[in-house]
Amino acid sequence: MAMRIEKTPQYPYAITLGALPESKSKLVYEVGKQIGLDLKAAGIQYNLSPLADINNNPDNPVIGYRSFGENKEKVADFAVEYLNGMSEVGVLGCLKHFPGHGNTNVDSHLGLPVLKETLEELMENELHPFIKGIENNVDSIMIGHLAVPSLNDGKDTSATLSKAVIQDLLRDKLGYDGLVISDALNMHSVSKLYETKGQLEWEAFNAGNDVLCFAENVPEGIEAIYKNASPDRIEESFNRIMKAKEKAGILSGNTGISGELNFEKTSKINLEIAQNAITKLIDNASSELAFEAQKNNKLAKLSLYKNTENTFFKTLNSKLPSPEFAFENLEVSDISSIKKELENFETIIISLFVPKAKPLNNFEIDNEVLDLLSDLLQTKKCIVYVFGNPYSLPLIPNLKKASGLIEAYQDFEVFQKTAGVQFLEKNIFNGALPVNIDIQ
C-alpha cells in the first residue's frame, strides 16, 4: 500500500527479498501474507503483484529493483511464496509482466520494448516463473506491453494485443485458464495506437484479456466489445471473473474492511529480512580497521544524502564515536570543504543513501559525489555502506579499492540499525547479491 498511500506499512523491494538465502524463503511468504492483511484492512481484495520478471538486463529502466533478481529458480520460488502468503488471507494475486519484461531497456510506460528471444529461449528462461505460477494455480497473469516478433510472424505487436501470445502461448501451450489482465491501457506504448475510441479496448479483449486495466474509453470500449465479440467469448471472461470474485469472497458479500494495519508485525518481518539480506561484498577486516583507527583518532564518518543524525551513525556511535560529516545536497553542502576536513583521517566509514530507486540520471547521484568517492577510495581506507539499489554500485569509480563494501538495499531505520549492529558485533552476513554486478 505504501506504493500509493503514505503512512502505511512499508516493505523492502523485491530485489532486497531476492538477496535472502533460499532457506529464508518463508520470509517472502510472510511479506505476501502481511501485505494481504494490510490490503484487507483497506478493503482491497486484489493485488497486481508480484513481478515474475527475471531482471537479466542491468539497464532495465522500469523493472530493476521490482524483480526478485536474475536467477530464474529463485524468482519463480519467491514469486510463488509471495502469492501463497496473500492467498492464505484471501487476497488475489497476479504474476506479471507476461511473457517477461526483465531483458528490456525500454520503459513500456513510454515506448514499446521488443524482446528478440525465440520461443525456445523464452521457455528456457523468461517463462519459467510463469509456468511455476500456473502449476501453483496463480489467480491471474498480467500481459506486458512488450513486442515479441518471434511469436507474431515477425511483427512488433504488443503482447497485450496479441492472440499469438495470450491464446496460443499462454492458454493453449502453457494450459492456463485463469484470469488474464492487460497492463494499463493508458501507457504510451499502446494508448495512442488507434484513433477511434474503443478500438484499443476491443483489440485487447479480442486478443484474450479478461480484464482491461486502466482503460481510458470505457463506454466506447464496452460498445465495441458488445458489437464485435461472440457471446461465447464474453461468457468465457465473465466466468473467469466470477470465479475470482467467488474466491475473494465478494459473491458472498464479504467485502467489508477487516483487521487493522499492524506496523509492529511489519517491523518484526523487516528486521528479520534486514538480518538475512544485507550483503557483504568486500571485507578486508574492516571492523578491526575502524576500531584501530578510532583508537588513534584517525576515524571519521561521512554520510551522503542524509544528515549525521541518521540511525546507522547513531548505532555505530554506541561503540565507535568519531567526527562526522555529511553531504545532503549541492544547495546546502560544500564538497570541497568536506574533502578538506577529511584530509586528517586515515579510515572513513561512508554511508551512501542512494537518492532514487530507478536508474534514471545515475539514480540522481551527483557527479561531484562520485568524484569525491573516487578520490577518497584512492587515498583513504574506506568502508562503504550502500543503502539503496545495488545497480548503483557500478557507478562508483575505484569501488574495488574499498577496505569494506556492504550492500544494505534499503534506507529503512531497521536496515540502518541492523547494518550498524552487524558491523560492531562482526556478525555473519547471510545475504547474496541477487543480480550480477561489475564494480569498478
Please tell me about this protein's structure:
This protein is of the alpha/beta class and 440 residues long. The protein has 17 helices and 9 strands. The strands form 2 sheets. A 6-stranded mixed sheet has the order 4-9-8-7-5-6, sandwiched between helices. Strand 2, helix 6 and strand 3 form a beta-alpha-beta unit. Helix 3 packs parallel to helix 5. The longest helix is centred in the first third of the chain and has 17 residues. It is elongated, with a radius of gyration of 24 Å.
Order of helices and strands: HHHEHHEHEHHHHHEHEHEHEHHEEH
Count of distinct strands: 9
Indicate the mean pLDDT.
95
Helical content band:
25-40%
Q: State the major sheet.
A: 6 strands, mixed
Contiguous uncertain segments of 5+ residues: none
Our estimate of the beta-strand percent is 5-15%
How many angstroms separate the termini?
Answer: 37 Å
Structural class comes to: alpha/beta
Number of helices: 17
Give the spatial strand order of the biggest sheet.
4-9-8-7-5-6
Compact description:
This protein has 440 residues and is an alpha/beta fold.
Topology at a glance:
Elements: H1 14-17, H2 25-41, H3 72-88, E1 95-98, H4 119-124, H5 128-135, E2 140-143, H6 163-173, E3 179-182, H7 188-191, H8 199-207, H9 218-228, H10 231-247, H11 263-277, E4 279-283, H12 286-295, E5 299-304, H13 311-316, E6 324-327, H14 335-342, E7 347-353, H15 360-363, H16 367-379, E8 381-387, E9 404-407, H17 413-424
